[in-house]
Write a structure and sequence with these properties.
alpha+beta; Alpha-Beta Plaits; 5-stranded mixed sheet; 3 helices; 30% strand
């Protein structure tokens, strides 16, 4: 916890820090192959919602809302994987930044199947 020395002291956390923490916490969950594509839109073009590498973050009154876009392994239990992502991201933001997490929304964009071995036949 940060103790401010003077009433006018402030601590500012760049949006990129939140994006990085959420992305890394997601990628360490078993079953996640990679981050998906973050959807575009007016908010992203006008930079109202920080977004990068499959993560969108909204912050209001020190409360964070996270949207994650992931590609999962074909063999992963998607429900369990998503719940683990939610726990991991919420815990990381709470412990590293001391911020309250309103919600962590997981969007599974695709499932990655292992590529079939190529044979010499045509």
């Amino acid at each position: 916890m940060v103790t401010l020395r003077h009433p006018n002291d402030t601590v500012t956390i760049a949006p990129g820090v939140l994006l990085t923490i959420a992305r890394l916490a997601t990628l360490e969950v078993p079953g996640v192959v990679r981050m998906g594509n973050t959807p575009g839109g007016v908010d992203r073009l006008l930079r109202r919602v920080p977004a990068a590498n499959g993560v969108q973050i909204a912050v209001a009154d020190d409360t964070v809302t996270v949207h994650l876009y992931v590609v999962a392994e074909a063999t992963a239990n998607l429900r369990e994987m998503s719940a683990q992502i939610q726990r991991s991201v919420e815990r990381s933001i709470r412990e590293l930044l001391g911020m309250k997490v309103e919600s962590v929304n997981v969007h599974i964009e695709d499932v990655a199947f292992p590529s079939a071995p190529e044979t010499g036949q045509r």
